[in-house]
Amino acid sequence: MGGDLMHDSDRKVWEGMLAHLRKHHAPICRQWFEEIEPMGIVSGSLHLRAHSALHRDYLRRQCADAFREAACAVSERLLTVQFHGPDEVPPALTKGAKPSAQPQPTPNGTPAHGNVIRELKPNRYESLVINPDYSFENFVVGPGNRLAHAAALAVAQNPDRVYNPFFIHGGVGVGKTHLLQAVCLRLYEANPAAVLYYTSCEGFMTQFFESVTSGEMSEFRHRFRDVDVLVIDDIHFLAKREVTQEEFFHTFNSLFQSSKQIILSSDAAPDEIPALEERLVSRFKSGLVAKVDSPTFETRVEIVKTKARLRAMPMPDDVACYIASRIDTNIRELEGAIVKLQVQASVENRPIDVALAKESLGEPFPGSGEPTIQVIIGMVTDFYGIRLTDLQSKHRQRSITIPRQVCMFLARRLTRHSLEEIGGYFGGRDHTTVMHAVRIVETRRNEDPEFDAVVRTLEDRSRAARGLS
């Protein structure tokens, strides 16, 4: 297997890389990195073996740049890093063996176990990467997700036999993607040869239009219909896409009639997705529709502890409770808080305690309770120089839509109002409009530092003004 090519100096490089990654790339570090086996450095490449093909694929697609930087920094020379599965033998580490002319791929595009392998070029239409952390074992079950969790387990154990299709819906960041990927992981573990295609609705639409343009519809249909399991995240983006809905309708029928499992997630229930064809609504509802609600305080505490454990990060009970009490919007924000705390503890070389957590997250602003929507609207309208009637109108000018979206985003973030209640304040708009506004603001904040600073300022002012309305 090439173990005899492993030198102490190579092993020290790997140990130094782990320390470097923890210090300089804390957000990507996982507890299971300790299980990665260094195989040796040959011809300028460090070869690392992951303990499963899924872990290998995750490392290749999510961690390659950080590992390469760590390898160069620690070794003080130019190194590349190559990741391998548990039974793969890189030609460079094989003494006297000739690689086979062409390794036979498995249906998911990876080389068959036991083959001498070559690095494969990424397929632009390959499945979304599956996070090994998103297993059933790491999913925290609570009152808001118990039904969806039980149904997902049943589907993973008996695909196409219990609930088909399986449709999960709920707000942003409540654990839908975790459940989708948990099913994928369990199915893969049970049957590595199964053909499973996991993508987003945006991916489906993009591939569809590219295939129509390039005249490759037969390849597109083969990719989506000749599978054992099709998993699509955020299927609500089919809304108002008539041509794409037509294609997905036929894809759905083809899979269902062939007894293939279909798993979908959405921010809204099937009959609440705007402008979705009735025939698709009917098919989505023909299996099991399960809602995932926001986690309770107790569930959030356990989520914080679980996320920290996966990062090999100490998490005292009082710190977990503090984070869970400060962040009650969604799980993604909980994880963001954990990463921020981990980075600050590493940079300042301080133990993780409540004092550091308060510094990292920022102490709450003085005042009682949360800001009202009226306070938020007042802050935003003053800043942008518009009137409340403008926000409630049907106007779609950029000068009106941006402040309206910011108001909806802040109302969702800072108040306990439901999506429907928030939409009601802005001319009776429905909950999907509010969800869309939240996504637009989050995306623009990531891309536009100046806009992000404006939103932060308005959020701070709204928090500071709470209790004064």
What does this structure look like?
With 469 residues, this protein is α/β, with parallel strands linked by helices. It folds into four domains: 3-93, DnaA, N-terminal domain (GMP Synthetase, Chain A, domain 3, 2-Layer Sandwich); 146-292, P-loop containing nucleotide triphosphate hydrolases (Rossmann fold, 3-Layer(aba) Sandwich); 297-361, Helicase, Ruva Protein, domain 3 (Orthogonal Bundle), CATH 1.10.8; 373-464, Chromosomal Replication Initiator Protein Dnaa, Chain: A, CATH 1.10.1750.10. The chain has 18 helices and eight strands. The strands form two sheets. It has a five-stranded parallel sheet, with helices on both faces. A three-stranded mixed sheet has the order 1-2-3. The N and C termini lie far apart (70 Å). 37% of the residues are buried.
Q: Which CATH-level-2 architecture of the largest domain?
A: 3-Layer(aba) Sandwich
Q: pLDDT below 50 for ≥5 consecutive residues: which ranges?
A: 96-122
Oligomer: single chain
Q: Tell me the Rg in angstroms.
A: 25 Å
End-to-end gap: 70 Å
CATH fold group of the largest domain: Rossmann fold
Order of SSEs: HEEHEHEHEHHEHEHEHHHHHHHHHH
Count of discrete alpha- or pi-helical segments spanning 4 or more residues: 18
Helical content (DSSP H or I, runs of 4+)? 40-55%
Number of domains: 4
Strand order of the largest sheet: 5-6-7-4-8
CATH superfamily of the largest domain: P-loop containing nucleotide triphosphate hydrolases
